[in-house]
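Please check this one:

***
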Amino acid sequence: MSFTPDKNLSTKKNDIFSSIHRHLYPGRVERMLEGGIDFIPDRREGYRYWDIDGRELLDLHLNGGTFNLGHKNPELVQTLIENLEHYDIGNHHFSSAPKAELAQALIEATPGDMQYVVFTPSGSEANDVAIKSARYATGRKKIVALDAGYHGRSGLSGAAGDDETAAFFLSDIPQDFIKVPFNDVAAMAAALKNNDVALVMMETIPATNGFPLPENDYLKKVKKLCEEHGTLYLADEVQTGLGRTGHRWAIEAYGVEPDIIITGKGLSGGLYPMAAAIMNRRCGDWLIENGWGHVSTFGGSDLGCKVALKALQMSICEATLTNVTTQSNYIRQGLDALLPRFPFFKGIRQNGLIIGLEFSDSTMGQAMMLALYKNGIWAITAGFDQAVIQFKLGILVDKAYCDAVLERFENACIWLVNSFNELLTGGTIDESDPVIISTKELAQKALTQWNIEGANLKLLKHRENTVFKITTTDKQSFALRVHRSGYHTDAELNSELLWMAALNEAGVQTPVVIPTVSGNNFATTTNENDSISRQCSLLEWIDGDMFDQLGRVERGVQKELEERYFELGKLAAKMHNQGSDWDKPAGFTRHAWDADGLLGAEPLWGKFWQHPAINKPQRKQILKARFVLKELLKQMGETKQNYGLIHADFLPENILVNNGELKLIDFDDCGWGYYLFEMATSLFPQITQPFFDELVAAYAAGYRTERELSDADLEIFPAFLMIRGFTYLGWLQTRADAMKNGDKLAAEIAKGLCDFIPDLLNELSPTQRMGMEVILYFQRIFAKIK
C-alpha cells in the first residue's frame, strides 16, 4: 500500500504523511485525508494549535480532555521543569513522596469512602485494573457495561467497550462482558438479576457516544441495583471528571458514590502520561495480599505524580469550578441563538463544558467536522454516533475565547450551507488531469472561431460539459462550454441554443448565445491528437451566486429557501408557458423525458436499477416501483397542461441569483418532459430538510402566480420525486470515476427511495400487484434465457 502525495499540500506535509503512512497508521492517514483533514499539529499554546504550515485552530477536541488546562500550561510546565532537577520516572517497586502526595490528594478529592489508588499510564490500563479488582473482590467474572460505552482498547477494557474493535482482534468475550443500553433501567436489572456480575462499568456521560445525558435518577437506580445484587459500581471519569461539569467529578452531579472511579487524560496536565483507579477498601484489599498483583513500569512515575498533583489542584479548585459554570452558561446562550437558523443543527447535549452538538445525521456530522476545520476549529465526531460533534472547551477558557468559538462555529455552519453540494459531489477539480489539460487546449483552439486570442481560461465545471470562464485581453467575460462528445447532434444542440434565445425574448433570463465569426451558434473543434470532434458554444457571462448560496443566512435557512423556492416556482411557470406557446422553428429537435426516457428499457440517464451500490433486495423493490411509476405516467398522458419543454436539470448549480433575480444556465439536458419532473428536480436536493413540505408549498405558490397547478398534480408529486431519485442513480452510475463520493451518494439515495417504495406499492389494488408480480417473474425468466 503506497501513499500518493497531494499536490495541494506542502512538500513538508506530504513527507510527514508518507512516513506515518508507511510506518505507523496508514488507515488513519487515508481516512483523515479522504475527509479533507490535512492537519499536522506543530506549535501549540493555551487552547490553540498551529499547523506546520502556520494555520491556527482552536482546540475543542482537547485529546479527550488531556488538555483541560490548555497546551503547555505555564504553571504545569514550571512544575515539570522544577521537579526535573530532583526527580525522574522513579522505580515502580519503591515508595516515594510524590506517589504518596498524589494518592492522598485523589482520595480526599473523591466522593465515597475511598481507600486505595493504583497508578497507570492510561485510562485503558486503569480500567483493566478495575476489572481485575472487582473480580477478585466478588469472586465473580461477569462484567456489565453500556453498549454505548468506551473504556479503552487494551485487553480487558477493550472487551468491556468497543465490541467491533475487540472482535476485529478476536479479543471479544461476549459470555463474560454483557452490554446493556444506556438509560435503560429494566435492561440493567435483567443483566444483574442472577447475582453473578462482578462490576457495572458506567461512563457517567458516555463520551464516545456523543455525551448523551443520564435521565433523571438513572445512575442512582443503577447504583441501587448494584447494591441489591452484590455488584460493584465503577464510574469511568476519564473524559468527564476533573472539573469539566463544574463539579470535581461528573458523578457528584448525580448523587452517586461509586466503588471505583477511573481518571486519566486531564490528570496528565497534557505533559506526562498519568491515570488512576481510585477504589474503596473492598475493591482494593487484594493490594494487601498481593502487592505485585499489578505492576506498571511507568504507572505512578515520580515526575508524573508531581505534574498530576498540580493538575488536580488546578482542575478542582473553586475558581476553576466557578469558571466552568460561568463559561458553560455563556457558550450555551450563543449556541441556542444559532440553533434555529441552521436546520441540520438539531440539538445540544450539555453538562458544564461537556458538550455534544447534534446534527441531522452522520453525513452532516462528518461534513460539520470538516466545516469546523475549514473555519479554524478542531473538533471531532463521536466515534459511536457520528451525527454528534464532541465540543469540548477547556476549563480555563474566558469569555473572549468563547466569543471566538461562537464566531467560528457560526462561520462553519454558513460555510456548510453554501458548500454542501460541492462536498456531496466530490469537491474540487484536479486541473492536472490529462483530460482537463487536453480539453483546455481544445477550448483555446475553439476560441479562434470567435476571433478571441490570448484569453485567460478559468475552469468552472467538468462533468457532462466542461465549462470555462473566458476573460479576454480587453477584460470582457464569457462562458465557453465544451460539450460532451456524442450527447447531442448538431441539430439538437442548435435547438437548445434557439430555445435559450427565445426564452430571453420572453423575459426568462438565460445567457445570450454569442455566434461565431461565421454566424453559427456553435463551433466544432478537434485536437490534433484526437479524432473525436467536440461542439463548443460561447455564451454571455452572467454574474450571480448559485441558488443554494445563501450568504450569512441571518434570517435562517428555512426562511431564505422558502423565498427562493417561491421565486423558482414563478420562473418555472414562465418557462413552461413560453415553451407551451412558442412556435418552434423548423427542424427543432430534443430528446424526451417521457415514460420511456425516464423509466423505459434504455432510460436517458442509464439503467438505474443496475447501479452496483444497490443490493439485491433493493433492486427487486426498485424494479417493482419502476413498473408502477411507468404505468402512472401512461395513465397521466402527455397533455399541454402537464407536458412540454423543460429545463430538466433545474438544480441549484444551474440557477443563478443576481440582485434577487433568478437566471437559468446549462440547458444541456433540456427537452420534452413532465412539468412535475421539473419541480421534483429542483426540490430533490432539499428532500432531507425538516421543512421540505414548506418548500414544496412555496414552489407551488410561486408557480400558481403564473400557471395552473392543480391539487391533483400535487398529490402525485411524490411519485416524481421517486422518479427523480431513480434518474440520479442512473446518472451516478455513468460517473463513478468522475465523482469522488458518487457510490456513497448512490447508496444513500437507494436506501432512502426503498424506504418509501412500500408506501407506493400499498396504493395498488391486489389485482394490480398480482399482475406486476407475474410480469416481473417472466422478465426474470426471459433474462435467464438470454
Notes: Residues 137 and 658 are 74 Å apart (CA to CA). The chain has a mean pLDDT of 91. DSSP finds 25 helices and 27 strands in the chain. Residues 399-425 form the longest helix (27 residues).
